[in-house]
Amino acid sequence: MNPFSSGTRLRDMIRAIRACKTAAEERAVVRKECADIRALINEDDPHDRHRNLAKLMFIHMLGYPTHFGQMECLKLIASPGFPEKRIGYLGLMLLLDERQEVLMLVTNSLKQDLNHSNQYVVGLALCALGNICSAEMARDLAPEVERLIQFRDPNIRKKAALCSTRIVRKVPDLAENFVNAAASLLKEKHHGVLITGVQLCYELCLINDEALEYFRKKCTEGVIKTLRDITNSAYQPEYDVAGITDPFLHIRLLRLLRVLGQGDADASDLMTDILAQVATKTESNKNAGNAVLYECVETIMAIEDTSSLRVLAINILGRFLSNRDNNIRYVALNMLMKAITFDDQAVQRHRVTILECVKDPDASIRKRALELVTLLVNENNVTQLTKELIDYLEISDEDFKEDLSAKICFIVEKFSPEKLWYIDQMLKVLCEAGKFVKDDVWHALIVVISNASELHGYTVRALYKAVLIYSEQETLVRVAVWCIGEYGDLLVNNVGMLGIEDPITVTESDAVDVIEDAITRHNSDSTTKAMALVALLKLSSRFPSISERIKDIIVKQKGSILLEMQQRAIEYNSIVDRHKNIRSSLVERMPVLDEATFNVRRAGSFPASASTGAKPSVSLPNGFEKPAVAPLVDLLDLDSDDILAAPSSSGADFLQDLLGVDLGSSSSQSGATQGPKAGTDLLLDILSIGTPSPAQNSASSIDFLSTADINNNTSNALDTLSSPVPPQIATTASTGMFDLLDGLSPSPSKEATNGPAYPSIVAYESSSLKIEFTFSKPPENPQTTNVQATFINLSPNTFTDFIFQAAVPKFLQLHLDPASSNTLPASGNGNITQNLKVTNSQHGKKSLVMRMRIGYKLDGKDVLEEGQVSNFPRGL
Amino acid sequence: LTVLSKEKTKHFGFGCERREGIISGRFFCYRFVYVVSYETMIHFVLLVSRQGKVRLTKWYSPYAQKERSKVIRELSGVILNRGPKLCNFVEWRGYKVVYKRYASLYFCMCIDQEDNELEVLEIIHHYVEILDRYFGSVCELDLIFNFHKAYYILDELLIAGELQESSKKTVARIISAQDQLVEVAKEEASSISNIIAQATK
């Protein structure tokens, strides 16, 4: 090395770093070296530069910051000697990438080097440009590169060709400049140049349709000829890989033919022969041959229909699939997924082999095979395939169960021939992989169970048996708890036995044992516990003989650390204790859940992968999130449609409904229409049992909904009447209701909501007019706010032709419903209500604002009032 | 489906920084500048030792420094833990990583879902054979102490994530010609410094 240089040599530094025993030691060595290098950089001694940079590259590879060396690269590149340039370019490619500003400084050096007299210097510049050039550099240097494609030395031609592929990727507008040069490369004999030339043509075809047309017309035959020559060529040691002459060139030619043939019958026709030849003649005992075959199959499947070739391709894939090499099987599975679109039958023939692949020890193969199986399932083979998959689920690895169970659920839901089968299969999945099942899947199961009334008995018994064995599968426990709560009597009395069942004896206390186990087990999560609590309440009515025991269990939950559980326990205890007369009607069976609305809603929430974000999560005063009710609400809230509040409800109606549930209900079946609408909340669920006769329908649904509100607001009213009771409800609602709810304060808002509650505001007040806004949010869409505007006339004269208009900024969307009337009686003797729906696209960032204009006629004169509302509650 | 596979390379992204967020199975981030982004075949090459030490990295698609270390950590975790008789492909973040173990070194290349995995395996082998020829039965230590040589060879094999040369002989010839140039320059430098040394004695 240079006798004048100071500092350690590269080799010594690497040794020193390798000798380090701990990470701390290594850091110390690197720190010292970096300090030395910085010092040397400051001295600006050209002799040490390339060695410093080499060291920096090594340090960079270890993951330490080396940005201070970037300028050194530029200096080295600008120096005249080849060794300096070589290391400089290497450093440039390693330490910088296309997004760094520093890179722009190198454009000029690159330009000079592209015109350098030494071809190796030109090669270095092309290589660097090809690996890291940015769009601007590509634009600046494209003419140089274009010229170099025709350079005399093949080494430069091939580098220039690949460099051009990068340039046209970065700046597709430049594509047409390269078309002619690229076409000339296809006539080359030198393999390196040919490979890169074919690559460039392929790239141009993808980017530019005109280029594609040009190559299709002018070059298709040439490419086919080249491929034929290479396929038939004699042994060439330089290019031979396992008996194939230049598989790389083969593959690129086939790939170019693919884009040329795709969508063009004539071109496809031309290449049929050679593709058939490659497909039949290529040796398939080594990886190189298989790589060529694989590419060939892909081309055959992409070009225009030549069915005989496709048979050939499918056969090759069949051979691949039965190959013992895992790699080959992997690519076969991959390709069969594409093949399935045009020849389902042929792929179905390999079903058994593919199913075997699902059980492969190799995770990559399993994953591919599972995807393929999902595509293979249809109505005819679903039972058999599901059985195979479920059998495998029992023995598969834990980490594969999640994927596998998700796919099984998908298949079962999509193709299930009948409900009994569906329920059976889902139970099996829940038993084996209940931990991994997503919420929407078991919600769907409950909806199906609820709809299959003739299977209720069977399902609850099957679940009971299953949960005794697989009590650690969370979702199984949830479904079981729900079913036992709903259909506990069917379990105990063996109602609705199917022929396939063995009779079992379950006592009432056995059933309660299961629920008690679920609620007391320490690893049950809050949703399960909450569901268990509801089930207990229901069972207390179904099993009167042991209601004392059930009560004890409920009472224990008063001490739960979950606020939600405490609160429910207190409420339920009160129902069990003091309201025996209405209890049985309160906890009647859930009305049948509506499948159609559930599916619509589920489809809507799918992109969000059934996230919990859609659920209303109410933050409680003590900082406790309200986790327990949210999933339940989600479960029961199967209808996201808002029920419009008719302003004519009164507390008396409500009470009548609540207490007269039995009287009002004609039959439990008629609840089917009412149920899903009302099933918006936990408490509501209890209250909605009283299925009112259709005549009462509208009034009662509103009343239920106002109780729903109560439920949402209970959070801040655990056992006191602390929250302010708005006058209109306090006066109208009967005390009986408060008694029932043990001092829970009702919410002021009357409209349908189960989202978080917001305080009402006075949006506008003038001497003659007052406008109040009350808010609610549909739980599944936090961006939307439903605003109910109430207009009150403070003047002694009646307003006629009353029109309310509102305007919002661009980030909001406003939808106005018609007003309840256009005449506003004088002196507050009545009001007009109007519903507004505001969607805030910047929800969470910006709050609502609204400008409004109110027009009306007062004594025949037009009056116009304007105002701006900016006192909306936060978080809307 | 055929149309899809054609369009695969035509992803119009804004800028190129990769981030976790799937747009048609690919990871793209939207940055300030509007750039049309076409995919290279090989996104990066990675050599890691059995102990998880990085021996060579080459990035053909832009990854920020932080992401690079994250990618390396993640991938070496996945690949080093795979058993011996499994296939050589790992699906990772919507890409495929083709890897092959040679003695104590894992050679990994990251490609798109649609690319030919078997060919990439062949490219890895091609590279290893050239290294072997150049160093004379290459071992990990050769690559540690002469890491820059390994890079030079890789640069003669791949540009812009695409294969450049299928002949091992040609690569060897071009590399040795360039080494020759360096030797000549070095000799000149040392003879000059000798003259200076003697003159200043």
TrEMBL record, chain A:
BP GO terms, sorted: intracellular protein transport; vesicle-mediated transport
InterPro entries found in the cross-reference section: Adaptor_Complx_Large_Subunit, AP1_complex_gsu, ARM-like, ARM-type_fold, Clathrin/coatomer_adapt-like_N, Clathrin_a/b/g-adaptin_app_Ig, Clathrin_app_Ig-like_sf, GAE_dom
Family annotation (Gene3D superfamilies): 2.60.40.1230, Leucine-rich Repeat Variant
Domain GAE: 756-873
Topology with respect to the bilayer: Peripheral membrane protein
Location(s), subcellular: Cytoplasmic vesicle, Clathrin-coated vesicle membrane; Golgi apparatus
Stored SMART domains: Alpha_adaptinC2
Keyword Kinase: no
Domain of life: Eukaryota
Gene Ontology CC: one annotated term: AP-1 adaptor complex
UniProt keywords, alphabetically: Cytoplasmic vesicle, Golgi apparatus, Membrane, Protein transport, Transport
Family from the record: Belongs to the adaptor complexes large subunit family.
Function: Subunit of clathrin-associated adaptor protein complex 1 that plays a role in protein sorting at the trans-Golgi network and early endosomes (TGN/EE). The AP complexes mediate both the recruitment of clathrin to membranes and the recognition of sorting signals within the cytosolic tails of transmembrane cargo molecules.
Identification of the protein by name: AP-1 complex subunit gamma
Originating species: Capsella rubella
Automatic annotation (TrEMBL), chain B:
GO molecular function terms noted in the UniProt entry: clathrin adaptor activity
Pfam family membership, one: Clat_adaptor_s
Ranges for domain AP complex mu/sigma subunit: 41-180
One Gene Ontology term from the biological process aspect of the record: cytosolic transport
Keyword Membrane: yes
One GO CC term on file: cytosol
Bilayer topology annotation: Peripheral membrane protein
Alphabetical UniProt keywords: Cytoplasmic vesicle, Golgi apparatus, Membrane, Protein transport, Transport
InterPro entries according to UniProt: AP1_sigma (IPR044733), AP_complex_ssu (IPR016635), AP_mu_sigma_su (IPR022775), Clathrin_sm-chain_CS (IPR000804), Longin-like_dom_sf (IPR011012)
Cellular location(s): Cytoplasmic vesicle, Clathrin-coated vesicle membrane; Golgi apparatus
Assembly behavior: Adaptor protein complex 1 (AP-1) is a heterotetramer composed of two large adaptins (gamma-type subunit and beta-type subunit), a medium adaptin (mu-type subunit) and a small adaptin (sigma-type subunit).
Family assignment from sequence similarity: Belongs to the adaptor complexes small subunit family.
Biological role: Subunit of clathrin-associated adaptor protein complex 1 that plays a role in protein sorting at the trans-Golgi network and early endosomes (TGN/EE). The AP complexes mediate the recruitment of clathrin to membranes and the recognition of sorting signals within the cytosolic tails of transmembrane cargo molecules.
Name used for this protein in its record: Adaptor AP-1 19 kDa protein
Source organism: Capsella rubella
